[in-house]
Amino acid sequence: MASTADQNRTLFLGIDLGTSRTTVMSSRGAKEVVRSVVGYPKDIIGVKLLDRTSIVGDEALDKRSYVNLHFPLEDGVLKESSEKDTQAARELIQHVISLAHPQPGERVCGIVGVPARASISNKNQLLRITDDLMNFSMVVSEPFMVAYGLNKLTNAIIIDIGAGTIDICAMKGTIPGADEQVTLMKAGNHIDSFLANAVTESYPDVQITPLLAQKIKDQYGFVGHPHQDVIVNLRSGGKPQPHEITKEVKAACETIISDIIENVEQLITSFDPEDQEEAVSNIILAGGGSRLTGLDEIITSSLKDYGPVNVVRVSDPIFSGCAGALKMATELPEDYWNQVGDVIGS
Question: Is the pLDDT of residue 183 over 50?
Fold first, then answer.
């Protein structure tokens, strides 16, 4: 374990590496969110306009007309299909670390969140990247990070809804094992794609992309009964016109419900019978997808046969994961990190 003097020269990071957004918090108070995309100039004109060879985050999206976009994460984990994907992942993580402003000579120790059922291969690939960028790093289950940050370590169920995956975790007072965690591949990106297709089917002349569908979902997304009609300006033949898409938004957002309910039901029965009542009264929604209006109500209604159900949202769905990772990094002696997740460095 690092000495007290070493700890005083250590910058601790909590990083939630997401398909759509990556967040970071540091022991010195940094708190940043970055879109998980890297842009590379298409040609020499792009290099001249940028005055650099790559850009990260929203700036890359804003300048997509003259850069090639690379999204290094897919379904919540690093892509492993090409060297360019690995390079983009490294540049994204390096950029995120730089936002915490590490000082010369300072040890950098970070905990990075990954989907609950990420493969050993993917964890190892991530650790190879972080080993070059940090002195000591660990990868850990994202819903476990949320639970640790909230101090919900026993008789609780975490539902972490991201862009690439939905991770569901049963907390039973121990580090959750594989049979106590589920990763679902139908998540926020699936909703965006479904919504774009549904709008196109209803209004064939409308121009809509998954990125625009994501913006609509983030603003208007709901499940259950709509509180109001969803009317948005969409371009048809290049001209903006109002379109009513309430049923399309509802249908898209509700595509994730049945899988969530089915897997929560399975996890409820994994608790000891005397603990199940407390578990169903302690269901926590986290991640960007937790903001869907009516989600807590529909889950509560669907699980009513299991007893009194209480579903709550985390207060900060964007940063709850990395906040838990930072809390873990600062509270847990480094000698114990390998009991929680996979580690690398010294």
Answer: yes
